[in-house]
Amino acid sequence: MTYRDETARLHAIARARGFRLVVTRHAEEQMADRDVARFEVERVLQAGAVVMVETDPRGRETWRVAGHDSDGRRIEPVVEVRPPSMLRLVTVIRVD
Amino acid sequence: MTHTLDRYEERLLGLPYPVVLLNAAEEITDPDTGEVLGVAVPHAEELAAAVALALCFQPFRLTGAEVRFIRRVLGMTGQELATAVEMDPATLSRWEHGKQPVGEWADKALRMAAVLRLQDRAPGFSHNPSDVVSIHPAARPDGLELAVEVRRIRPLASEIESDAAGWDALAKAALIRDWVSVLQEQAAAQASRTPRRSGLQRDETDRRKSGLPGLPAGAEPGREQHQDAGLDEGNAGAQGGGKGEAGRSG
Fold first, then answer.
1. Cβ–Cβ under 8 Å, residues B46 and B171
2. Is the ipTM of this complex over 0.85?
3. Per-residue pLDDT for A95 more than 50?
4. Average pLDDT, rounded, for chain A
5. pLDDT > 90: what percent of chain B?
6. How far is CA B3 from the centre of its chain?
7. Which stretches of chain A are DSSP H helices?
8. Predicted local distance difference test score (pLDDT) of residue B152
9. Which of B176, B134, B41 is nearest to A27 (CA)?
10. Confidence band, pLDDT 50/70/90 cuts, at residue B184
């Protein structure tokens, strides 16, 4: 199952000229541990599909996005949407 | 709120060493709470392409990790890249994992394939693609780690009115610092540790004998020289020329 509207919004944000992917310290550590590069996450955000939507205790939505890295391995970045042009990367999950 | 960092060590490019971003990374703060949300690197795709191109024009043989980085920037699987450079995928895999050193011929073939594919993805990276043909990558001295610095210029507001100008300003700003001066700094550090002739000095001698480009004429390995004159902010044209020289030095 994918979230069509959320995926369309995600692509609009991630492909915009002023797009910023803000990487948290936690996400940075996860990316280093899991050998995922920043540009690979951005590619997934620009072309992947939202597969899970969750709401955190503060009422902010996080979207889990499915895609693949350059080796064809599945990765799933989790982002918090910060309109109009920002996504905050919470973590990156590697699905092996 | 956005605060541009003067210097930031980017470790999320997939290289085993950081790439230093000058005047480029942005620390983002929540305007409501004051909480630091994290760090953003604008236009990461173009940054990765510029760094990959810089690696293709540097004079030392690529390491396995650098080969893997270039492949990932290209967005190719090991099989696809091996096919592109007409080699055995198993050999490419052994390179990437450091189980086999990259040979000179294959190193060069890979650089040429990468430069042809990446040149349009970092439009402001001033270089002549055909220059890669004249590179004869030398063996990398033990312990020598390359340092990459990327500089970004804050464009004037009038220069970013259109998408094209914005990309151009970004591309011109994504400059790789003169490789020669970086290598000289490394050589100086190495020379200070080793009283005898260093590996880099030997390489430089070999390059001069063979007529290969390396350190500039008159430069002495082990002595730092500042060659980034003309790289001041606001002088995008001069920066492009400086980078071009750096690119052509290899």
1. yes
2. yes
3. yes
4. 93
5. 26
6. 25
7. 4-14, 25-34, 38-47
8. 61
9. B41
10. low
- A-chain residues near B12 (CB < 8 A): 23, 28, 31-32, 37-38
Q: Is A88 on the interface with B (CB under 8 A)?
A: yes
Q: What proportions of chain A, in percent to the nearest 5, are helix, strand and coil?
A: 30, 40, 30
pTM score, whole prediction = 0.73
On whether any CB of chain B is under 8 Å from the CB of A23, the answer is yes
Distance, in Å, from the CA atom of B95 to the CA atom of B65, rounded to the nearest integer, reads: 8
Domain layout of chain A by residue ranges = 4-95
* Domain limits for position B88: 2-248
* pLDDT, tens digit (0-9, with 9 covering 90-100), for B194-240: 554 434 444 444 444 444 444 333 333 333 333 332 233 333 333 33
Q: Pick the residue from chain B with its C-alpha nearest to A32.
A: B12
A-proximal residues of B, 35-74, CB under 8 Å = 37-42, 44-45, 47-48, 71-74
A17 vs B163: CB contact, 8 Å cut-off? yes
- Nearest CA-CA distance, residue A24 and chain B, Å: 4
Amino acid at position B69, single letter: F
Q: Which H/E stretch holds residue A49? A: strand A49-55
Tell whether B103 is within 8 A of chain A (Cβ): no
A40 to chain B, closest Cα gap in Å? 8
Output the pLDDT for position B245: 34
Structure tokens at B70: 């270039």
Question: Quick one: pLDDT band at residue A56, thresholds 50, 70, 90?
Answer: confident
| Chain A contact present for B89, CB below 8 A | no
Residue of B nearest to A38 (CA): B12
In this structure, the number of other CB atoms found within 10 A of the CB of residue B188 comes to: 18
Locate the chain A residue with the closest alpha carbon to B45: A39
B26 inside 8 A of chain A by CB:
yes
